[in-house]
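protein under study:
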Amino acid sequence: MKRSTYHLIILTILTLSIAICGIKAAYGVTVRVKDVAHVQGVRANQIYGYGIVIGLSKTGDSQQVINFTTKIMANVFEKLGVIISEREQKFISRNIALVMVTADIPAFAKPGSRMDVLVSTVGDAKSLKGGVLLQTPLQGADNAVYAVAQGPVSISGSENLGGQAQSVVKGHTTVATIPSGAIVEREIPFNIFNDNYINLVLKAPDFTTSTRLVRAINSSFEDIASPISPAVVRVELPERFIKNENIIEFISELEDISVSPDSVAKIIINERTGTIVVGKDVKLSTVAVAHGNLTITITESPEASQPSPFGGGQTEVIPNTNINIDESRAQLKVMPESTTVHDVARTLNVLGVTPRDLIAIFQAMKKAGSLHAELVLM
């Protein structure tokens, strides 16, 4: 191979690499279709029910709510053939607790499938640790029973320590889970096909993402996708998949297509923890910032005044308060225009401020019009 030909091949490879990098830089990260959208009609459904947890170690409902709990227990005994009189229904036991059981039944769940459930106390029970949930029907919004839950509850990371005078509880002990504790009894009907087309629903509706999704699908299949709205993309079923009745394979290939989602420039701020997350599209206009801290320290040093040995009087405590004000010196710093998150972070780090100070700076920049992003406070 001639040297000129070899150099030409290397130059072509470098050109293609630069072009690919440019496309990735323009559109950002690529993900699968199934990560940004779902097929309309494929969804989970919420179900719930109320039941009884038994076997507690004197941590169940107190006497204030035990009357209602024992009535439910009497109904359970009646189903088992044990008839309890009204007088016997007033027995008091701290080993039972009234709970609400909730779960999400996944799409395509068949009778006999298992799923996790969440158990939460309704009364004033102190802990569900060591308890067992009795058989509890779980119903949907239509009042039909779709699953039945039962089994020992699990409280992860909880601990109860103490003595006669004081006790300490670590973790949340009034909410528990039962892994695979519910059995599906009824299948929820669904419909994902409408006249040989399906709808893809974006998890984060956006005009740009919807347009890119249509382009990505049409590049893999010949002109079968069209945008309906920023949230919905209609996809026609190809003839070859309809003839072979292999729609599942088509949806699998559809979900595996790569697409580059777009998003609004945002800064997420959690004022409780001081956490700040800056999105990739955040930009700053040129602005001057001065930030200083004012620290006020108040100390109490009371002094005792003693009377003379042979005179009258009483011992008195004289208050002594010291107030110290320290205001750090702040310099006015010019923050140049920034085009990337790296530039924004580097510019803000020049100020040497804490995350909580950055929150105040971001809010002030937004009001000044120099921060081009949406502030989301949590």
Remarks:
- The longest strand covers residues 45-54.
- The helical segments are 3-27, 33-36, 66-79, 207-220, 239-244, 247-255, 341-349, 355-368.
- Residues 146 and 193 are 24 Å apart (CA to CA).
- Residues 1-26 have pLDDT under 50 and may be disordered.
